[in-house]
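Hey team,

Sharing the Xylose isomerase run so nobody has to redo it. Sequence (435 residues) first:
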Amino acid sequence: MSTGFFDGISKVTYEGPESSNPLAYRHYNPDEVVMGKRMEDHLRFAVAYWHSFAWEGGDPFGGQTFERPWYPQDDMGRARIKADVAFEMFDILNVPFFCWHDADLRPEQGNFADNLATLEEITDYLGQMMETSKTKLLWGTANMFSHRRWMSGASTNPDPDVFAFAAATVKGCLDATHKLGGQNYVLWGGREGYETLLNTDLGQELDHMGRFLSMVVDYKHKIGFKGAILVEPKPQEPSKHQYDYDAATCIGFLRKYGLEGEVKLNLEQGHAILAGHSFEHEIAVAAAEGMLGSIDMNRNDYQSGWDTDQFPNNVPEVAVAYYHILKAGGLGLGGTNFDAKLRRQSLDAEDLIAGHVGGMDICARGLKAAAAMLEDGGLEDALKERYSGWKTSSAKDLLNSDLASIQAKVLSEGINPAPKSGRQEILENYVNRFV
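Structure output:
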């Protein structure tokens, strides 16, 4: 049944590259087979409930610009209207998944008992809608950053009562995710960091964060949740020193607390840029350690230097990201979540559809380019050639030797290597042939 919010907007379908329809897929064809798998099953698109439905259009210098029939988001009646509109949009876009924070789904009640009750109420409502919808839950998470109680962190908070509130909140959100058949659960740190060492015991906070995550893993197994537990790296958002700064930092943290076999990473393009990395760097780091879980696909405004959460529009960037994902074997239980929001001047329901259509098309183009590069093998051939010296028995012996023996070898054989070109420009030109 139509909510009326998307009146005049038909279901989005694939019309092909020649289409000029702004609300049609030109490149995303769910049933197109890429490297032996349907495109939909490669990309596993998910709509972010928070940016699409809960965000009101505010920024640091101005408040709400959007007018939606579920605003103000302060009672369960409007929460149900928001859910109705959300599922209508999922159907229009024909997306397989969505993602949420608890605070996106239900209004803040000011106390845990009522927050839990309203979360359970709206979860039951979502479950009823999912019975007749194609769209399933990719992952759930807890918003432990917006309310003032979280101003000094959640699991890292110096107040044990806040730690307890956080633990209770995550239990409720993991229960809700499990009940809805979610395929992952994400711990989105938000304020797990500090602003000054003058009032921070860094070591204790890290220990508490490690213990908290261990509790989550233990509870996952207790309830039989088969999905993945994911953490999301992020730098300087909003704390000056985030404990989960980037993929490498998170991997080191997980290993320190013995969680490397239990937890993977949910990586965001915008966070990678804020950490001074490329998105493909973060993906490659996680993949190299077997910890690639899922991705949030968006982009930043490179002039602003902030996480602006815009829909992706750069095919070469996306293509190289998916190249490393495909090379790693794909996203598994993860997916491509659009942690992206409209610009605050884009007021209309049509804009919300168009943003997702464009982002899905960009990802489809990137995926096909990535697959073509893998099938062509040019980058892999270049890698093999560059590291071919390590295939010899004498080179392999170096790794099992010692400094004194290696020095003697260099002296006796007169080893004096000449530099070899990295051929970066040739390889960049190679990528551009496919995008």
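The domain at 33-376 is CATH 3.20.20.150 (TIM Barrel).

Ping me if you want the raw files.
A.
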